[in-house]
Design brief:
This protein is of the alpha/beta class and 418 residues long. The chain contains 17 helices and 10 strands. The longest helix is centred in the middle third of the chain and has 24 residues.
């Protein structure tokens, strides 16, 4: 059976949309969900002007809506479809092909960005299956993003030169100044990006092995790995986090920092949480301050990481002793999550220190970490303004900064590759 032989019949929700035969050297496919999106052509132009890789590339745009969406959303989708078809006529090249999937009657229960990504990524799987290319790469992007001109060549290089890599996160930077949006919006997106960088950087500092950015517009995954992990989910928001965490836990996950994606800083009410929803909430609250998790909670995670090696092949007495070394909120959280019982079971199924650590972090994964953050705040630790947390973290890293506002601190994090 080929790499998609089990996945497509059991997980794909629709039959094939694209009839055109893929080029034999197809290796990169970019999937772009598009709902009520006025900036699609700018996104396509950004990909079109990219340096050409050695392989063929396909871009699959999934214009989508639910059966209950209103006339305004459907009219914008219709406009996007017309604009796409007109644009495509003028942008015709043998090794880079643009395809449109238009589906405006999705069930209300499932309609959203997760389902749209899934439809496009499943279509990409079919096209790689036709070619027998299990190693082909499916790339997540958004219809309000742009990218650097070396975007395609750098993704190709990463996956060609590193055959064992399953997937990667791609470096991103929101625009922090221009004349397209007002100062408030740019201050707000600076605060939010600073939070994203602080959260993952603090977990890296703590030593958690799964601390990677999980953003839907800036990742890439091999087709066979996508299938093996059950494909994209249908979540209306957070689909990227849930999907990529399954991929990250396989190992051989990379960070691609030699190119960048530039997501939009605009507000949006299209999803319940995420970048657009956060900016929308800041606008409504008339405050660009962003409250985040206390650095003390991340140091609790570091404490756990440091004690993992001391629990291998130990009995319940030793494990309870380890538990007593942790802070009060961490102890209570781990007790509620049956820490001792789970560690004993992990030990029973591990024949080496390495296996034990792998199994432990699949239990104490990024989902569990997020649950701990929410458990410990504000019951034990107060939320802190992101600028204060960022400065405190930079000091912890030994990085000197005189910057105080979110934009400047965001640049500090970028410049120090945090």
């Amino acid at each position: 059976m080929n790499f998609a032989g089990h996945y497509l019949p059991n997980h794909a929700l629709y039959s094939s949309f694209i009839s055109a035969t893929p080029n034999e050297d197809l290796f990169l496919q970019i999937v772009i969900p598009c709902f009520n999106e006025p900036y699609l052509i700018k996104t396509l132009e950004s990909i079109w002007i990219c340096d050409r890789p050695n392989c063929s590339v396909e871009i699959i745009v999934v214009i989508n809506a639910s059966i209950n969406n209103g006339i305004i959303e459907l009219e914008q989708n219709r406009k996007s479809e017309i604009e796409f078809n007109e644009w495509k006529k003028k942008h015709n090249e043998k090794k880079i092909n643009f395809h449109l999937v238009s589906i405006n009657n999705l069930p209300e229960k499932d309609a959203g960005v997760g389902l749209a990504r899934k439809i496009g990524m499943d279509e990409a799987v079919r096209r790689f299956e036709y070619l027998g290319k299990s190693e082909g790469v499916i790339i997540g992007f958004d219809a309000d993003c742009t990218c650097q001109t070396n975007y395609l060549t750098e993704i190709e290089k990463l996956f060609i030169q590193n055959k064992k890599i399953n997937a990667c996160s791609i470096q991103f930077e929101h625009p922090l100044q221009c004349d397209k949006y007002d100062d408030f919006t740019y201050n707000s997106i600076a605060s939010y990006e600073l939070y994203l960088r602080y959260y993952i950087s603090a977990l890296k500092y703590a030593g958690h092995p799964f601390a990677f950015q999980t953003i839907g517009s800036s990742f890439a995954v091999r087709a066979d790995v996508y299938c093996r992990q059950g494909g994209m989910n249908k979540r209306k928001a957070g689909e990227d986090f849930y999907f990529l965490q399954k991929i990250i836990q396989l190992g051989n996950y990379a960070e691609l920092n030699s190119t960048k994606v530039f997501p939009s800083p605009r507000a949006s009410n299209r999803v319940p949480f995420g970048t657009g929803a956060t900016i929308q909430k800041m606008l409504e609250n008339k405050s660009s301050n962003y409250l985040t998790y206390n650095l003390k909670a991340f140091l609790d995670i570091e404490h756990v990481v440091n004690f993992v090696s001391k629990m291998y092949k130990k009995d319940d007495i030793v494990i309870k002793s380890v538990l007593s070394e942790f802070s009060e909120p961490l102890q209570k959280f781990l007790i509620e999550n049956n820490f001792v019982k789970n560690v004993l079971e992990i030990n029973e199924n591990s024949n080496s220190q390495t296996t034990f650590q792998q199994r432990f972090f699949k239990w104490f994964n990024m989902f569990k970490v997020l649950k701990y953050m929410n458990f410990s705040h504000p019951a034990y630790y107060p939320f802190v303004n992101i600028t204060e947390s960022a400065i405190e973290f930079l000091k912890l890293k030994g990085i000197v900064t005189n910057n105080k506002d979110a934009k400047e601190l965001c640049e500090d994090f970028r410049n120090n590759k945090l």
